[in-house]
Amino acid sequence: MSDSSTKGIIKYFKSKFAAIGSSGNNKPEAGCTPEYTMLKKSLISNMTYINGKFDGCSDFVSKELITCGRKAVIMEIDNMIDKLQLTQGVLAPLADAKPPVSLTDDDAVFNWLRDNTFTFVDQKEAFSYEETIGFLMAGFAVLLIEGIDKAIAFGLQGFKFRGIDEPNTDKSLRGSREGFVEPLRLNMMLVRRRVKNPNLKFEIYNLGSESRTDVCVAYIKGTVAESVLNEVRHRLRTIDLDTLLASGYIQAFFQDDPFSIFSTVGTTERPDAFCGKLSEGRVGIIVDNTPITLTMPFLFVENFQNMDDYAVGPYYATFTRILKYLSFFTSVLIPGLYVAIGSFHQALLPSQLLYALAQSEEATPFTLVFEALFMQVIYEMVREAGLRLPKQIGFAINIVGALIIGQAAVSAGLIGAPMVIVVAITATTSLITPTLYEPGVVMRFMFIVLAGMAGILGLTLGVAFCVYYLCSLKSYEVPYTAPISPFNGYAWRDVVIRLPWKILAKRKIAAQDLPGSNVDKTIG
Amino acid sequence: MEKKSYISTAQIVLVLFITRLLFSSTYMSVLKTGNYIQDTLFSIPIIFIVNFITAIPLLMLLKRHPGHNPVECTMKIAGKGVGSIVAVFYYLFFLLNAAVVTGNYENYFSATMIPDVNSFLVGFIVLIVCLYGVLKGIETIARFGSIVAIIYMITLIIIFISLEPMMDLDTLKPVFYTGTSYLMSSSIMNYNLSIQILAFAFLAPYMRQGGSLGKAYAGWNLLTSIILFMLMFYIVTVTGSFGAEQMYPLQTLATLTKISSFERLDAIHMVSWILNTIITITLYIYLAISCLLKTGLNKHRRVLALVSGVAVFFVATFLSRNFNFLQVVIDSGEFSIAITFFIIIIPLIVLMADVIKGRVMQDAKNE
User: Fold this and answer.
1) B25-44 pLDDT, tens digit each
2) Is the bond into A483 cis (omega within 30 degrees of 0)?
3) Euclidean distance between CA atoms B105 and A57, whole angstroms
4) Mean pLDDT of chain A
5) Cα A107–A113–A118 angle (5° rounding)?
């Protein structure tokens, strides 16, 4: 037995013994660089490995060809690439490729092919199986040649995607009608078009051990705070998911308190809003295959801001801002207030109004608190049904639901008419600030119960608890309630009121500059 | 241990301002001024000046040891043993005041709002919310206090504006018809209610760098005095001698408030009053706990909060059932002595010890 084979056997058993006890730790640390297996010079070995990896994948396509007197294989994932570009830009040149006679070395021929034959800007080299498979998954066409231990990947992405259209969640009357789409690179393009500045940086990370989803961290160097950026990077690296299919999967990882009912991470489907946040020193995250992007830090007052506020005149913008604040508090407090006043503090109402309410509620068999809870639950059910169904059926469900809730219940004497009005007002006002809809629902139910138990005392205690909770929240060391509390008069130019652009443009206030912020102010 | 937090000077001023306003008018009925309630108005300028004088030892002590509260100063100057004893005293003092506020709140609800509910239940529920705020820390308390201050001011503005037509300036006359007895008793009452001087000293270490202690204190004193004066002015001119007999004259004012067809806006006042009560109790319990944390109990913050909450609950329940005792306590000279002891005497002794110690050390250095 030769020495080399003996050594090989010893090495084999050593590796096996080393693997014992570490079977649970095979999963690579999230975000760390995996080990690479280098490509081989033998085309058959490479294809054996790759075909083995794609065994059972009917969308994996490979074509053998001869170029420069050598066997080659071009591989792609079906429907991920533009076949016309592949034919015209890769296959045809390969077929006609005639390297100089002086070039006989495999590497020299490869380099000649790479530099003289193809005219793609997006052309990369892969040196390992993992890189090769990564490029294939990303929609590249990959060329392997016999005798060469590297591959060329061509960026020929031509997969179908949803067109750039107006976002559903955040419409604007006078702003842009473009919204983010699913492909990451397109979204990056939409951002780049709006911030034509090389200080706008995009860092790509790969998350999800199974899905290998690309995640992009966007920020403007010179505006963002280094500590916030580093914290985002750190949290990104510690995310340990198998599959990442939407930005909502990782949103909780960026929140300081994952159980918080108020989100301290913003979401937007609008590129203009996204760029606006970046210009205020925030960090943005774009996830491949998701049109909803994330921004952080995110503050409470941002729930009441949208792009239309900056496109219209200051007076109307201020009016709509005030309207949004009033709407939020109305949607959250009105049902509880009605229950409290109707149950415990009737003296507060003018006598005529009191008589009307008493008359309508007298005939109903249930208490006000039960009516309020019942109506809110029914409304939420109808709303969920309307959201999940196709548009035509959903529309019909909404009409039927409204009829049932409105007309039939009142006519049958189950519910008082004022309660229907309260629910209708609540439903309408809650949709004015859609980002606060979820916490609004939770708070609304809580306030109804507290008001039913203890009137305005209970309601006020609930409000106090919620305000304490809000005041305790932070988003990347910036107080969530800033600049309301801690107060900053200068920042209020864009909170409840919106001053004219000549004043807004004078000095920008970044998130880390808000009062009460403990962010390290070192600029990235 | 809670991470060191910082709050702005404005937040400190607003929190102390709003907590000072809370029961300022509640104890007026104890004075039994009758038709001469207008004499009590002049106690406000007096107490404005007295507040500056009483705060001198504390402010001087804090200036000599910036970033430290009175307990920390005592520990630094007189050693941890003496400092711990002083800490316990201040802890009990703040807890007593928290219990007084809670007891008053329980009595308010069971007497005026919801008589069917047991008073201790009312106190229990509000203490739960307060303890939540205590555990969240001083930054949360300060932010909450700022919001409450705005809400309270808006409520007062609504009340003042709507009651302006009902003001009768004739109720301001005659002044000092029976001498200065009512002036003195109301001055003593207002002096007894000025716990915020001590609270300011304990909040001073949390002030952001660059803030001036003297200016902050002067701002608080001025703002409080102006609003208190306006409050008392309205009570006198709108309710007159009727207000002198009321246990909660501000509640009476709110009851008289009318906006269009909506009458009896006492519910609006109740909301801001409850919020004010919550921030006051929270602040006092937090300051009480912060005293004991310096004695080495900083790892037991949650336990301390719970124990303090329970203690406040039981004492408040006792006080709310002995409301006359509660009111007399605030109005009494004995309470004034206690206030003087905690706000003036202890800091003065510590200050003198610090000065003497400094001189001795200086002499030793020179030798």
Assistant:
1) 666 666 777 778 888 888 89
2) yes
3) 72
4) 85
5) 150
Q: Do B143 and A455 touch (CB under 8 A)?
A: no
Number of domains making up chain A: 3
B302 has a chain A CB within 8 A of its CB: no
Q: Are residues A325 and A461 in the same domain?
A: yes
Say if residue A225 is in the same domain as residue A281: yes
Q: Which residues of chain A neighbour B11 with C-beta distances below 8 Å?
A: 485-486
**Length of chain B counted residue by residue:** 367
Instruction: Please report where in the chains the tokens 């004022």 appear, as a residue.
Output: A418
Nearest neighbour of B109 by CB, restricted to A353, A457, A516: A457
Count the Cβ atoms, other than its own, within 10 Å of residue A151: 26
The residue type of A71 is K
Q: What pLDDT score does A114 carry?
A: 86
Q: Which of residues 209-228 of A touch B (CB under 8 A)?
A: none
CA distance A207 to A215: 7
Q: Predicted confidence band at A499 (pLDDT cuts at 50, 70, 90)?
A: confident
Long-range contacts of A73-77 (CB under 8 A, 24+ apart): A73/A43, A73/A47, A73/A143, A73/A144, A74/A141, A74/A142, A74/A143, A75/A50, A75/A136, A75/A141, A75/A142, A75/A143, A75/A144, A76/A136, A76/A140, A76/A141, A76/A142, A76/A156, A77/A136, A77/A137, A77/A139
User: Which pLDDT tens digit goes with each residue over B79-90?
Assistant: 889 999 999 999
- Best of A461, A477, A517, A519 to mutate (most B CBs within 10 Å, chain B): A461
Tell me, letter by letter, the H, E, C secondary structure of A142-189: EEEECCCCCEEEEECECCCCCCCCCCCCCCCCCCCCCCCCCCHHHHHH
Of A353, A456, A485, the CB nearest to B147: A485
Compare CB distances from B274 to A352, A457, A484 and report the shortest one's residue.
Answer: A457
Contact A465 B262 (CB under 8 A): no
pLDDT, tens digit, for every residue of A193-235?
999 989 999 999 989 888 889 999 999 998 898 899 999 999 9
Host domain of residue A148: 43-155
Q: Do A136 and A273 fall within a single domain?
A: no
Angle at B178 between CA B177 and CA B181, to 5 degrees: 125
Which homologous superfamily is B9-357 in?
A: Hydantoin permease (1.10.4160.10)
Q: Coil, strand, or helix at residue B96?
A: helix
Q: pLDDT-derived band of residue A257, with 50, 70 and 90 as boundaries?
A: confident
Which positions in chain B touch A472 (Cβ < 8 Å)? 136-137, 139-140
ipTM metric: 0.89
Yes or no: say if A364 and A416 are a contact pair by the CB < 8 Å rule.
yes
Give chain A's count of helices (H) and strands (E): 19, 12
Does residue A501 form part of some domain?
Answer: no
Q: Give contacts of B114 with chain A, Cβ < 8 Å.
A: 344, 454-455, 457
**The pLDDT of residue A159 is above 50:** yes
Q: What is this structure's pTM?
A: 0.83
B290, pLDDT greater than 70? yes
- Distance (Å) of CA A84 to CA A81, A157, A158, A168, A210: 9, 11, 9, 34, 31
Confidence of residue A23 (pLDDT cuts 50, 70, 90): very low
Please give the DSSP secondary-structure letter assigned to residue A202. Answer: E
* Token representation of residue A401: 């639901």
Same domain as A285, residue A367:
no
Q: Is A207 helix (H, G, I), strand (E, B) or coil?
A: strand
Quote the pLDDT of residue A395: 67
Query: Residue range A70-89: average pLDDT?
Result: 89
Q: Nearest by CB to A464, from B8, B129, B264: name it.
A: B129
In which band, very low, low, confident or very high, does the pLDDT at B176 lie, cut at 50, 70 and 90?
Answer: confident
